[in-house]
Amino acid sequence: EVQLVESGGGLVQPGGSLRLSCAASGFTFSPYWMHWVRQAPGKGLVWVSRINSDGADTDYADSVKGRFTISRDNAKNTLYLQMNSLRDEDTGVYYCVRDPPTVPELFDIWGQGTMVTVSS
Amino acid sequence: DIVMTQSPATLSVSPGERATLSCRASQSAGSSLAWYQQKPGQSPRLLIYGASTRATGIPARFSGSGSGTEFTLTISSLQSEDFAVYYCQQYNNWPPYTFGQGTKLEIK
User: What does the pLDDT read at residue A100?
Assistant: First the structure.
C-alpha cells in the first residue's frame, strides 16, 4: 500500500523550532518530487514547499522563505521540514504530498497530516 | 501569483441531483488545474487533473471542464459520500502552487 506518514508535530512557543518527518512506503521514493502543504484550523489548503527528486532544487512560499527548510533522505525514504522562528500563523495541519514524475505537479497522494500548534 | 477563486462558498444540493462547482483563475492556468475532495478529519484526495482527467479510482459521475481562467467540476448524481469540501488548484505557474478557498457541498 502506498503510504505517507507524517510525524514530529506538536506544541511550540513562538520563535521556537520543530522538525517534521514524512516516511514513505509502498513505492519507490527517489524519483518523486515531494511537497508540504498546510491547513490552518477551519481554513483552506496552502502550499508550503517543494523539493525535487535528488534534493538539489527547492522552492518555498514567501510566508516561510528563510525560516523553513525542506530536505529528503532517499536512502531512508523520508522527507523533512525544518521549521524555525515559528509564528502563530504557522499553526495548522501539515501534509506531506507526493508529486509523480509521470504527471508532473500532480499532488496524487497525501499523508494523514501532523498538527503543529504555535502558541505561548 | 495566480489567485484562485471558487464559487459558491457553500452549495446545498439534494442527493441524486447534479452539483456544479466553479473555479476562476486570476490569469490563465492553461489546463493545469486539479480538483480535490476533503471530508471532515481526512486529508485531501485528488479527483481531477489536467482540468478534465479523472484520477485513478474516481467514479465517472465526477467530471471536470474548462481551460484558461474558467473551470467547472460537475458531480452528475450526488451520492451521500460526495458531501465534502472541494478545492481547485492551479499548477501552471509556480511557485507558488495556489488553491481556491474551497466550496462546501452540503446536503439540502
Answer: 87
